[in-house]
Amino acid sequence: MQMIEHTLDVRGPKVSDGQRSPSAIGWVLAWVEALGRETVSMAFRYTSRERGRPPAWLVAATTVRFADMSPGDGFTRLHFEAPRLGEAAEEPYKQGELFPESRPAPSDTAFDLIGDVVQDIRSAKRDSWRFDAGLLTRVERFGRAPSPWGVDSITLHGDRLPVGSPPAVDAQVSKLARSLRTIIPHPVRARVAGKLDMIRASDGSFGMLLESGESVYGVLTDGSTRLLRELWNSAVVVEGQATFRPSGSLLCLEAEGMAAATAADRFFTKAPKPRGGGQAPLARRVRVRQSATTGASAVYGQWPGDETDEEIAAAMKELD
Questions:
Q1: Residue 161 has pLDDT above 60, yes or no
Q2: Per residue in 64-102, pLDDT tens?
Q3: Do 220 and 255 meet the contact criterion of CB atoms below 8 Å apart?
Q4: Are 107 and 158 in contact (CB under 8 A)?
Q5: Measured at the alpha carbon of residue 37, what is the angle toward residues 33 and 39, in degrees to the nearest 5?
Q6: Which of 59, 195, 243, 284 has the most CB atoms within 10 Å of its CB?
Q7: Where along the chain do its domains lie?
Q8: 157 near 8, Cβ under 8 Å?
Q9: The pLDDT of residue 301 is above 50
Q10: Is the pLDDT score of 45 beyond 90?
Q11: pLDDT digits (tens, 9 = 90+) for 308-318
């Protein structure tokens, strides 16, 4: 299998000017390995989450070699070798255009896809299919790296990555990742009916065609691929969790079950829609500063107490 060279220029107080902290280098290696695995999963399955044992092709496609380390001018250069996805992940490519929008080119490597993710984040691309909340969290965590690990930025080079403006992960990208993550609508429970017209039995991925002509992509989370073969090209109903992009458009249906559709399922032929706001914690969204003029203190003891029931009802009606 042909291996493609990529280099990562790592900058920071513990990896520059002759400094090569084992903890800093170790953190970078672990972070990049996890980021590559989640990025490739996202590109093929519309989800970075791993449930159960990963398919063999995903393991092969994300197995990269740390080959060497060399000094640079104000940085440490890490040398990697990565396989072409078309060679390492042959099985998905044999099954045709399952996810035509996102399926990477066979000549791509995991590092090429990481570069694409970084570019979409830096551009604040709200309708990107290259990341979900989990993958954005991984990039966001880089912002916490400089303090404990002494790493300020990682710049990617090699293969098709742009030479003039190579993708770099830094504090700004970390902040942008957080901004995008916090506006992603919360996942919702969903029931969707449509024609099962695309399947990939190797990892439980599937595509559904809805009445409107819209395509919905998903993955069976329990790994039961037998259902996909039995129900392919027929009307099905799927239940699970719908995830969304920062723009609010549907990203993926993480299906927990699938069955042949019945007449009653005609009410579920539309793509799921988000409900409510983004990922910001509820406590943060509803918290009100308490003082003499705000919060509960502003209204405590202020009810006049002499209105009739009819007057109160009329006042409440005016608020509708």
A1: yes
A2: 999 999 998 999 999 999 999 999 988 777 765 555 555
A3: yes
A4: no
A5: 115
A6: 243
A7: 3-182, 188-268
A8: yes
A9: no
A10: no
A11: 454 445 555 44
> Six-digit token pair at 146?
């400089």
> Tokens in use for 118?
């970084």
Overall average pLDDT of the 222-249 stretch: 88
Place of tokens 């093929």: 44
> Rg of the chain's alpha carbons, rounded to an integer?
25
Identify the CATH number of the domain defined by range 188-268.
Answer: 2.40.50.140
Q: Which residue, among 206, 152, 169, has the nearest Cα to 39 in the 3D structure?
A: 169
Helices 22-45 + 133-140 axis angle, to 10: 160
Residues 236 and 193 sit within 8 Å (Cβ to Cβ):
yes
Give the model's pLDDT for residue 290.
52
Task: Quickly state the pLDDT bin for 57 (edges 50, 70, 90).
Answer: confident
